């Protein structure tokens, strides 16, 4: 027998701001809007529209628009989420039972669900939550939890230019920024925060003042910083070739980030060198190879005592990580994990980085990682197995105030807003999803045969919940699309839920 469901109240989109205030008062993770949506990880049947640039903002929508005219009713901004009643386990389970029984979710033993109260961690619903399942890109939540322990949130990644050992050399020294703008940097942006044009202008000034080589210069590259392979050995060539992931580099242009069916260049670092040569030439410096599309910068290691000619700084690490999560950028997460592992005293080798993630989540967050298999930081490789209960526990840690560094990343936009931002911009689009639009946040996960969704949602009564949902035995064809829609509906039912005992 179908249960009766109250129709959700609907208000204009600008009411989202009130909901954000409520969750922030509770100390919960409330991500901001990201201005650009980007595709999730590979799926056999779907892709999402994207643009070349992506950036994060701390501003919520401020006025009604035609795209999403209806959203769930907001909670009163004068009452903290902690004052709202916790849903009853039985009532909540009944609320979502039809959706969880959908045949679109594949094998019944491969549907895993963990729903928690965000502030207390109390389990409110559970289906196979301790079973090992394929998480796809929700793996990134565990990686983010580890990354914030190795990289300070305010840390920035420095790209430098120094004088080389040879009298005509200038060397671009990689420092972990793969989001450089071609021209001037934008201090308000994350992608393109630092600019190659600024680096060239500073270099030209230094050269004119006698701080480096005189006459014609040659541009070199020092890529020794956190060096490692530009693709995981456990990745299929298809993921790189078709643009589902870019190259894992510590020096790159924002415009070279991979998009589905629009892959990144074979050598993003050489693209930086090319743009730098041209920008330096425009500053009046005679540069070997400027304007030559086929020219390549020789790789060298800068002298330890090299004179610095120029430097530019990236956005804060927390904002870079938030952007990587919001857009599910596989290469960005992998390179951030490498940097964090090395900063914490480890190595950049794949097995060492994944072992560091497991150990960090276990020791710093106190979670049971027995049996957990993490093959890469992004969730793109075959073989990663994580219970949804662990994913939910990580989200609780990011919402209950116990781990402020993770909370700040999620609040900076790391969890997209349902129906509006990041990988959720093209989700929650049906009428039955409306209760969750604007009040749910989530990290998506998609691989062939797998659909995952993990995040936070505010109930009708104003309580913040955490959920982690995975179905990893989907049929072929349109099942991936339908399964994602069913998971969206589960979250919508949580948003609709008062779920108090009668």
Task: Give short descriptive properties of this protein.
12 helices, EC 3.4.16.4, signal, disordered N terminus, hydrolase, about 30% helix, alpha+beta, carboxypeptidase, protease, Beta-lactamase
In a nutshell, what does this entry contain?
With 502 residues, this protein is an alpha+beta fold. It has helices spanning 16-25, 89-100, 139-150, 196-208, 237-241, 268-282, 317-326, 330-343, 350-365, 388-397, 404-414, 479-496; strands at 10-11, 71-72, 111-117, 123-127, 158-163, 169-173, 177-180, 218-222, 251-253, 298-299, 308-313, 440-447, 450-458, 464-471.
Radius of gyration from the alpha-carbon trace, in angstroms: 23 Å
CATH-defined topology of the largest domain: Beta-lactamase
Helix-strand pattern, N to C?
EHEHEEHEEEHEHEHEEHHHHHEEEH
**Alpha-carbon distance between the two ends:** 18 Å
So, the CATH homologous superfamily of the largest domain?
DD-peptidase/beta-lactamase superfamily
* Outline type: elongated
Low-confidence stretches: 1-39, 43-78
What's the helical proportion of residues?
A: 25-40%
List the strand order in the largest sheet.
4-3-14-13-12
Number of domains: 2
- Largest β sheet strand count, sense and barrel closure: 5 strands, antiparallel
What's the count of strands? 14
Determine and state the CATH class of the largest domain: Alpha Beta
What class do helices, strands and sheet pairing give? alpha+beta
CATH architecture verdict of the largest domain = 3-Layer(aba) Sandwich
Number of helices: 12
The mean pLDDT is 86
Protein name: D-alanyl-D-alanine carboxypeptidase
Keywords: Carboxypeptidase, Hydrolase, Protease, Signal
InterPro entries: Beta-lactam/transpept-like, Peptidase_S13
GO molecular function, one term: serine-type D-Ala-D-Ala carboxypeptidase activity
